[in-house]
Amino acid sequence: MALSGAICFATVAGHRDGQAASMPEASRVFEIRLHDNDTVGVRAFRAVRIGINRFSSTTLNVNGELSFNEGLYATLTDGRDTLRLRPRLSADRRECRLCLDGPLHEGEWTLDIPEGLIYADMEPQTVDRLPVSSDSLMALAVPGAWAKPGERWTAQAAFSIHDDDSIDAAIASSGAPEGTHGGYFSTLFPVLESLGLRGCLSIEGWRCGFTADPPALNVNGRVAKRLQDERGWEMQAHSMTARYQENSWIVGGLDSEEAESILDGAVNMGLRSNMTTSVYDTETRRQYSVNADSTGWEETPVEWIKPYICDYATGRAVAYNPAFSVDYQWGEWFRIAAELGIRANAWVTPGPTSSHANVPLINDICPNGFESDGQTFYNLPPMQSTATRLMMEGQAASGYIGETDPDNRYNAAHHDFFKRQIDEACAKGAWIVMGLHAYRPCWVNSLPGALVSQGGDYPDAWVNPMEGVDPLDDDLSPRPELGISDWSQWHPCPGTRLYMLWELLKYAQDRGMLNVTSSEGFRRFGNTFARGYYNAGIKIGPDKGAGILGTRVRYPHYIIGADGAENYYNPVSSPRVTLTFTVADESRLRDRDRREEGNRGHTFEGVSPDGLRVRSDRRTGLPEGMWIVNGRKYIIK
Questions:
Q1: What predicted TM-score, i.e. pTM, was given to this entire model?
Q2: What is residue 636's predicted lDDT score, i.e. its pLDDT?
C-alpha cells in the first residue's frame, strides 16, 4: 500500500546520509508533503505541498522578488526535461502548493526548491531569532514583532509642513506642468510667513539643476536655497527625476512578438516624460525607451529608468525593475545637494519608489524618510522605517477624488478629519507631518463673489500675494499693494481649502505643538537606526491592493526608537530542498506492495536519526517518526 506521509525540511536540509544534525529554525516550521514519500503514482502527483508544522498562527508567503530578480523557481527535472512549478497559496495561507500543469511521465525525478522561495510570518515563539535576550522583550500587536520596553513617551507634540515636487508656476525653471497655478513660493510661502512657520520642500533634483552638466543650481534651486538660508526652510530629497511606471512593460527580447506589438503603439514624449513608452528586456536585463521617431528601441539613460515594470496585457505592475538605480536617484541627489549648498537630512519618495524593495536601500543612504501609508497619520517611537504623513489634499479623508481635483472650496468634513488627527497627536505627544502639493488646483486662493471687486470682502491683491515679486532679488516682505506692514496681517481667502489649511496650522500652533523641520522631528522622535521596512502589514506604492505578484506583506526590520525602545521583525525563510523520487504507474505500485507484503521472509529495517533500529515485515508497522528504510527516507505518521 502507498504511504501517506510528510517529509519535513529537517529531513532533507538538516541531515546528510542519515546523520543527525542540528535543526535550523526553518526546519521546525516548514514541512513538505508528497503523496508517497519516495514513489508516487503518475495520476496522483500534481503538486508539492509545503505546509506549516505545529505553529498555529504562522502563515506562509511566496518571495516573488527571488523568482524575478534572481530567476529562482522550484523545479522538477529527470535529466532531460525541467519543469517549473507554480506557487499557489491556500486561502488561509497555511499551505503553499507548487503546482504542475500536467502529470509527470514515469522515471526518477529530482525536486529542487531554492532557499528563501517560501517564508513564514512567525508567531511570537521565534524569540530565539532575536539579537538580544528574549527576557528583555515584549510582544507587539504585529505577529513576530517585538519591542524592548522603554520610558513612556511624554514629549511635546510637534508638526511639520511638507510641499512636494519643488514646483512653482511663477518660476519657469521649476518645470511646472501646463495649467499649474501657484506653488511652494507663490502659494505656501505667504501662508507659512503669516503664522511664523517654517516649511520643508521636497526637491526633485532635475527641477533644481542637479542633472545639468556640470550640476549647478538653476533659478528654482536658488529660490529653494534662499528659503533655506533666510527663512529656515529645510530641503529634502524627492529623488533625482521622480520616475513612475506608466508605459513601462516587460518583454523577453527586443525582437519578440510582444516587443513588436508594443512598438506599434509606442509614444515618445521626451525622456523626461514618464509617459514615454519603455520596456525592460529580460534577455539583456536593461531598460529601453522608444526612439524619437517611434521606429525602434534605444537604451534608457540611468536618469530616466522607471522603478517598476508592468504586464502589457493587464497593465499591472508585476515586478521591481532590476535596472532602476537607487544609488543614482538618491545617492547622487544627496552628493550633489551637499556640493551646491543644500543642507538635507531627510527624503520623501515619489509614490512609485516607496517600495519594499527600494526603501531599505534608501535608508542605507539616509535613514530619515517619509511615506504616507494611508492608515496612520502621526508618528510615535519606535518609528517605522519611514515616517508617515497626513496628506492635506485629503487622500485619507472621505470623499477624496484625486490630487487634480479643481474643487478649492473649504471642506468641512475634511477639516474635522484633520482636526481629529491634530487632537490625537497632541494627546499622545506625537509628531504629525502635513504634506501637500501647493501647485495643485485645490489650493487656488479665491472663490466667486469673494473679492472686493465682486462685492465681497477679500482684497483683490491678496489672492496672489507674491505676484510680481522677484524671488531672488526682491525683499520678501509684503509688497505695498497688499496694504499690510507684515505677513501676520495677511490670511487666505475665507471659504477656500487654502484657508482651511491656514486655520488648521494655526490650530496646531494654538494647541502648543512645536513647528519642527524634518531633521528636528527625527532627532526628537527617533529613527536612530532603520534598515528594514516595517509597516505593520501595509502595502505601499504599486505594492498596494493587487500589487506586485508575490510581494511580501512585511519585511525584516530592526528599529531603535527615541526612548531607546527596540523593535524587531524577522520572517523565517525556507531552506533549500533537494529531493529525488520515482514516478511509476499506480497499478504497478499496488502490485509491488502486494508482492512485498506477501513475502513473509522479507523484513523492513528502519533506522532513526538517533540510531534506533526497528524491524518489521511491513513498513506501516514502524513506529511514528522519521526512518531510513532500506536506504530510503520515510516519516511514519
A1: 0.79
A2: 56
